[in-house]
Every structure is written in C-alpha cells, then in structure tokens.
Amino acid sequence: MWDEEFSEIAKALKASEIRELLKVTQDPGIISFAGGLPSPKAFPVDIIKEIVNKMMDKYGDKMLQYGATDGVNSFRDAFARFLTSKYNFKNIKRENILVVTGSQQGLYLLAKIFIDPGDTVIVEAPTYVGVLTAFQSYKPNYVPIEMDDDGMRIDLLEEKLKDLKREGKKIKMIYTIPTFQNPAGVTLSLERRKRLIELAQEYNILVVEDSPYEELRYSGEPVPQLKYFDDDGKILYLGTFSKTLSPGMRLAFMVGHEDIIHKAILAKQGIDLCTSPFVQYIAQEYIEGGYFDEHLPKIRKLYKEKRDAMLDALEDYFPEGVRWTKPQGGMFLWVTLPEGMDSQKLFMKAIQKKVAFVIGAAFYPYRDHKNTLRLNFTYPSVEEIQEGIRRLADAIKEEMKN
Ligand code: PMP
Ligand code: G9A
After folding, report:
1. Can you give the pLDDT at residue 402?
2. For ligand 1, is residue 106 a contact (CB within 6 Å)?
3. Residue after which a domain boundary falls, among 270, 292, 314
4. Which residue, 170, 180, 242, 245, is CA-closest to 209?
5. N or C, which end of the chain is more exposed by having fewer CB within 10 Å?
6. pTM assigned to the model
7. CA–CA gap between residue 229 and residue 345 (Å, rounded)
8. Relative to the alpha carbon of 37, which ligand is closest?
9. Residue 181: predicted pLDDT
C-alpha cells in the first residue's frame, strides 16, 4: 500500500545489511562476528550513574529542557579544548563544532547539504555500509578506491582525480575512515595522509574524515588525524562517543569549516531540533572530570585481548589460501577468501553452524568482491571467538570442497 504515494527519496530507501543482520544474530545460540557492537563490559555503568546524579543536582533544569540545535555551549567549549589539547587540532572554536545524534546523523546531514543526484563521491573500497545507507536517497555516483595494508591507495586516487577532472565531473567529497578502517581494519600511513591533504588542496575537494575508532589502539604507533594537518578547512572531521562511552547515548560531533557547520545546523533543525542536552552534560563531565582518560585504558586492554584471540584463532584454524588483515586497533578485520568463492553462500553454511559475519559485498557500492567478509572481534567473548572461528573455518573448508 502507498507505493505510488511515496516520494522519490523514500523509493530509494533500502534496508541496511547490518541492521537486518542484527535480527538474525539475536538468536542466543549464534556466535556473532557481524554487527559492530562494543562489548557491554566496556560500558562505564558505575561512572555514568555517579555523573548523572552529580550533573542532575547541578544542571537538571537544563538537562531535561530542549537545547540549541548546534549543541550545549559549555559542552562545545569543553570539546574545543579537548580537540586542541589532545589532538592538537588548529583554530578550533565553538563555531567549528556541531553536536550530532550519532555520527550516522552527521553522515546524513552531509549528504543532505552536499549531494545532488549524479555528484561524484569518492570512497574507499570497501567502505562503511552506513555511509551507503545515509547517502542512498541522494543518489551519488560512487568512485571506489582500492586499499592495501596502508589504507587507501593514494596513487590510484590521484589517477582517478585526474581522469574525473578531464571528464569535467563534479567531485563533492572524498569520504575516508583513515584509522582502523571499518570494515578493513587498516590504517592510512603518515606519508599517504600528507599526500591526501596536498591533493585535497590541489583539487579543492572536501575530505570527510570519519574516525570513530582512533582511541582504540592496541599496538603500533599513533598517527595524527588528517584534521591535524588541516590549515584551511578542507577536512571535515566526524567523531563519536559510541565506541569510547556508549552507542546508546547517541552522541557524536562534526568538526569543520564554519560555513559547513552552519549549513548542517540548518539541515538538523528540520530533523531533530537538537541533540539531547542530557547526554551532552554527562559527556562534558566524563571528559572534564578525567573519567574519559581513566576508563579508556580498560577498554583498550579488553579489546586487545579479543583482537589477539581472533588473530591467534585465525592462524590456528583457517585453511591455506585465506588471507586476513592484522589491525592495530578498532573493532574489525577483513577476510579475503580464495578467488571464486562467494561469502553469501558461505554465510548460509555458517548460520547452520551458528556463527555469523557480514558478507563483503555489503561494503561495496556496486556489491562486487564477493569473496570477502568482515569479522568483528569486540562483541564476542574470548571463548566465543575461539569457538566461532573454529566453526567458521569448518564452514570455509566445506565450501572450498564444492
Ligand atoms: N562511521 C563509521 C565508520 C562507523 O563504523 C560507525 C558505527 N559503526 C558510524 C559512523 C556511526 O556511529 P554512531 O554510533 O556515532 O552513529
Ligand atoms: O548498525 C549498527 O548497529 C552500527 C554498526 C555498524 C557496523 O557494524 O559497522
């Protein structure tokens, strides 16, 4: 019913692969490496209880009220100080920060203010499935750029930029997750970061740096954000509290040029009026009260054990001919099966063995690269990781025989 009446935008809507999968993986018998869920053990429940009480006593009237669309000023100021002192971002003021209801909303706002049908958007191949969901109604033309262990192949990007310029194509943005990429787990090298900034300047293109995972480093040396190198507002940085505090709080932020932030505020006014002041006051105290710095090492320790357990289990159980990335942080790793294998078929077999993952094709705008899949290692326990990888290895071996 109503099919004729739905708008063109609504007709373009399709279910998110990951959201749909969450339903399948609710079955308690299934070991899920599918959704990008934090471990419930990573949630600072007692700290939040304490903060809520304290802040409600002080600011209850403001926390329960509507707030400004751009965010609570004291939170934006606290956050500007945080970005300046912790990440060394330059020239960050309140006006450069928009508080959003999850970085997923930030992505949707960007689509709404930048993309007309047919505009070119450059993405990594594979890319975050949620960006495809956020952008789908605006119908961009995606140009996927391959990655290797050092992140996006900037040499290929440069070739593409030249080609697109020659063809007179309008490139609206380069969307990248440079640090512990979702889904591939790889990190863009320092050298490539510098070259990417140069290209953004040379071609005058907005780069969207989506970075939910960068505080989750378990090994290797930190690399500065793209935004750290940004002198003239070419980088729009998206960050979130979903992986360092709680995804249920839906609190994230967009940092960029004042003109972009202003336009995004106008778009947000029509979507949800404001981001919950309640969660902003909690996050403000979480940062300024020192809880953020105190709690993070615990999350890193928990996830490092899980990452190591998954890498060990893959080494122990996976057959010859299957490759995987070795992430230094984040929540995911990326598996490449032998050429010709289809992870969709493997998925059916894996579900029978009560283990789930996300098929690789979901992360490609044109759904190619069928022999790939993504594994999440933060949600399952170490024991579930060992057992789940054993089951998945069995499914792969059976599939290889066919
Ligand atoms: N971007 C990327 C790359 C992500 O992996 C995620 C969460 N999985 C998001 C955005 C959305 O996060 P949030 O909870 O802040 O909406
Ligand atoms: O849709 C969700 O629950 C967020 C997870 C994102 C992902 O799995 O990449």
Report:
1. 76
2. no
3. 292
4. 180
5. N
6. 0.96
7. 44
8. 2
9. 98
Question: What pLDDT is stored for residue 398 in this prediction?
Answer: 96
What is the pLDDT averaged over residues 255-282? Answer: 97
pLDDT at 3 (0 to 100):
87
CATH code at position 171: 3.40.640.10
Distances (CA, A) of 23 to 20, 35, 164, 346: 6, 10, 40, 19
- Residue-level pLDDT at 216: 98
Same domain? For 57 and 98 the reply is yes
Token digits for 299? Answer: 């999350």
Give the mutation target among 19, 98, 99, 104 for probing the ligand 1 site: most ligand atoms within 8 A of CB.
Answer: 104
Q: Read off the pLDDT of residues 105-124 as tens digits, 9 standing for 90 and up.
A: 999 999 999 999 999 999 99
CB–CB of 106/236 below 8 Å? no
CATH code: domain of residue 320: 3.90.1150.10
Q: Range of 326's domain?
A: 3-44+296-401
Among protein residues, the one with the nearest Cα to ligand 2's atom 1 is 19
Claim to verify: residue 153 and residue 52 sit in the same structural domain:
yes
Per-residue pLDDT averaged across 119-145, rounded? 96
Of the candidates 189, 240, 188, which has an alpha carbon nearest to the alpha carbon of residue 210?
240
Identify the residue whose tokens are 């262990």. 149
Question: Which of 22, 99, 128, 238 has most ligand 1 atoms within 8 Å of CB, for mutation?
Answer: 128
SS (H, E, C) the chain: CCCCCCCHHHHCCCCCHHHHHHHHCCCCCCEECCCCCCCHHHCCHHHHHHHHHHHHHHHHHHHCCCCCCCCCHHHHHHHHHHHHHHHCCCCCCHHHEEEECCHHHHHHHHHHHHCCCCCEEEEEECCCHHHHHHHHHHCCEEEEEEEECCEECHHHHHHHHHHHHHCCCCEEEEEECCCCCCCCCCCCCHHHHHHHHHHHHHHCCEEEEECCCCCCECCCCCCCCHHHHCCCCCEEEEEECCCCCCHHHCCEEEECCHHHHHHHHHHHHHHHCCCCHHHHHHHHHHHHCCHHHHHHHHHHHHHHHHHHHHHHHHHHHCCCCCEECCCCECCEEEEECCCCCCHHHHHHHHHHCCEECEEHHHHCCCCCCCCEEEEECCCCCHHHHHHHHHHHHHHHHHHHHC
The residue type at 305: E
User: Considering its fold, how many domains does the chain have in total?
Assistant: 2
